Amino acid sequence: MEGNGLEKASYIFGTIHITCDATIDDGVKKALDQTSQVVLEIDMDDPEMMTKMMGGMYMKDGKKISDLVTEDELTTIDAMLTKEAGMPLKMVETMKPFFIISMLYPKMLDCPMQSFEQELIKIAQEQNEEILGLETIEDQLQVFEDIPYEDQVADLLRTAKDNLAYDKVTFAKMLELYKNEDINGMLDMMDDENNVSVAKHQDKLLHNRNKNWISKIGEYAKDQPTFFGVGAGHLAGDSGVINLLKEAGYKVTAVKN
Question: Residue 135 burial (CB < 10 Å; 0-12/13-18/19+)?
């Protein structure tokens, strides 16, 4: 990322939040060496992050999962959670369905779960660099307040009905696309109508957030050369970060290892 008043280049790296192999390759390490701060979607070394996240994980107005599904559907969800997470639904019945699904992510992989964000944080700390965010944890949590609970619970029910089978196939496909650096393919996957929360609400999950990030990316990059790490699904398409930065006057070119 260059031009438009920037004295030095900044770099944008597309992450995948959950993966089998979060090894940082030499090209990415070089970009980290050439920058002096790391900016992720949120400031992940904020000591209050977990406390804030816990507060935003629960449905408002005393809602429970049982308010959103039939008795038979409730039984299906309870059976799946007991089997896959080792806990009955009663323990998490007031959580937003999205966060119940996210608890199951490690089960959707056929490997121990790793995180690019954690690896980037580790390198930033080794280099004594600041870790900052493009949005607050409150901003991110609001997304799952804006997506109707009914749509979230539809995804939870789909996950429960086939005991994670669909999710495992989908995760494997997403990881393969990421490995092949196919950000357009990753974006196309978000149109899958089986995943209601994503397919129906890309404006809330992607487009609105992307637009909000552009001025912040510019401010950070003008201040000092910056390494940005955001989900790869945010990069592609007309409303993706790459195109929006170009429209804002920046020169964005792919870095080949």
Answer: middle
pLDDT of residue 257: 59
Q: How far apart are the C-alpha atoms of 94 and 79, rounded to whole Å? A: 17
Q: How far, in Å, CA of 210 to CA of 134, rounded?
A: 10
Strands, E, within the chain: which ranges? 11-15, 37-40, 130-133, 226-231
Residue 238 in tokens: 């007309």
> Per the structure block, which two tokens stand in for 111?
């490997």
- Report how far residue 28's alpha carbon sits from residue 39's, in angstroms, rounded to the nearest whole number: 14
Buried b (16+ CB within 10 A) or exposed e, 147-171: bebebbbbbbbbbbeeebebbeebb
Kind and range of the H or E run holding 112: none
Phi-psi region of 237 (alpha: psi -120 to 50; beta: other; left: phi over 0): left
Strand-pairing partners, residue 58, are: 95
pLDDT over threshold 70, residue 74:
yes
Q: How do residues 144-177 score in pLDDT, each as one tens digit?
A: 999 999 999 999 999 999 999 999 999 999 999 9
This prediction has a pTM of: 0.90
Check: CB of residue 108 under 8 Å from CB of residue 22: no
Please count the CA atoms within 13 angstroms of the CA of 171 that sit on its side-chain side.
20
Say if residue 46's pLDDT is above 80.
no
15, 117 Cβ separation under 8 angstroms: yes
Domain ranges for the chain: 11-247
Nearest to 160, CA basis, from 225, 244, 89, 112: 89
